[in-house]
């Protein structure tokens, strides 16, 4: 039986840190996109209200309501989504645990076949499958067959709080921009602040995704500007009609 080539400590260290870095980048990307949603949705809301009225109290009330509704909606949606994913992962792990207990030999053959399909020779795949099974069979099957790390299941509460905070941070910018400046400056300050924030979030999301930032920034700014333009136009029409 051939002995597998030991993996250098540096390679194992790099692989572990690579996986952790990938997880952090996914969370950071989600935070940037959540903040972007907060900027666009709240900006569209307060600019639309500004088209109908210049009353500071009305603008603050609408913006705060939009901030709370949006952040709570994002948190609840993320909690439900991640909870469903976590339940599915737990069910898959429970089934795998049961199969390992009832049919260990069949599971060993299955793991060998999966490793072979990934490019290992049959002999090396058989040796690797036996060593992985001897060390931790559930972890081996979870990672190779299911693509799940049993020790790193996503926490729905963490996801919900992250979405809530990201949306809130993004929504605070247009809310403060529409209520703090003098009446004559409110709309201009809000539009410029929002467009600057959209440039930043578009650039950040593109860089985190290893994509060229130009198109991402253009799409982000264009979508935000269109949203503010439409809602301002609707608000102006409703304000002129006395609705």
**Biggest β-sheet: count, sense, barrel?**
none
Q: How many domains, as an integer? A: 1
Q: What is the CA-CA span between the terminal residues? A: 83 Å
Mean pLDDT: 81
Report on this structure.
The protein starts with 8 loop residues before the first helix and ends with a helix. With 243 residues, it is mainly α. It has helices spanning 9-52, 56-102, 104-117, 122-135, 137-146, 156-179, 186-208, 213-241. The chain has one domain. The chain is built from 8 helices and no strands.
How are the SSEs ordered, and which strands pair?
Blueprint: H1 9-52, H2 56-102, H3 104-117, H4 122-135, H5 137-146, H6 156-179, H7 186-208, H8 213-241
Helix pairs in contact: 1-2, 1-6, 1-7, 1-8, 2-3, 2-5, 2-6, 3-4, 3-5, 4-5, 6-7, 7-8
Characteristic terms for this protein:
mainly alpha; elongated; single chain; 84% helix; 243 residues
Structure, briefly:
The protein has 243 residues and is an all-alpha fold. The protein contains eight helices and no strands.
């Amino acid at each position: 039986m051939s002995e597998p080539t030991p993996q250098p400590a540096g390679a194992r260290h790099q692989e572990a840190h690579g996986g952790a870095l990938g997880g952090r980048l996914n969370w950071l990307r989600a935070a940037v996109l959540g903040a972007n949603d907060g900027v666009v949705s709240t900006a569209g809301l307060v600019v639309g209200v500004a088209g109908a009225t210049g009353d500071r109290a009305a603008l603050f009330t609408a913006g705060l309501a939009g901030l709370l509704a949006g952040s709570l909606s994002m948190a609840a949606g993320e909690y439900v989504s991640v909870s469903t994913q976590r339940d599915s992962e737990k069910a898959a792990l429970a089934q795998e645990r049961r199969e390992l207990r009832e049919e260990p030999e069949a599971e060993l053959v299955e793991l060998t076949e999966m490793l072979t399909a990934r490019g290992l020779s049959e002999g090396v795949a058989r040796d690797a499958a036996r060593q992985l099974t001897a060390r931790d069979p559930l972890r081996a099957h979870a990672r190779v067959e299911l693509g799940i790390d049993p020790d790193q299941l996503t926490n729905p509460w963490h996801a919900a709080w992250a979405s809530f905070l990201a949306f809130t941070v993004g929504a605070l910018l247009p809310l403060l921009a529409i209520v703090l400046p003098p009446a004559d400056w409110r709309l201009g300050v809000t539009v410029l602040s929002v467009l600057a924030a959209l440039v930043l979030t578009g650039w950040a999301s593109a860089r985190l995704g290893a994509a060229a930032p130009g198109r991402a920034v253009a799409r982000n700014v264009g979508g935000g500007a269109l949203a503010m333009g439409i809602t301002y136009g609707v608000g102006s029409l409703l304000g002129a009609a006395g609705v």
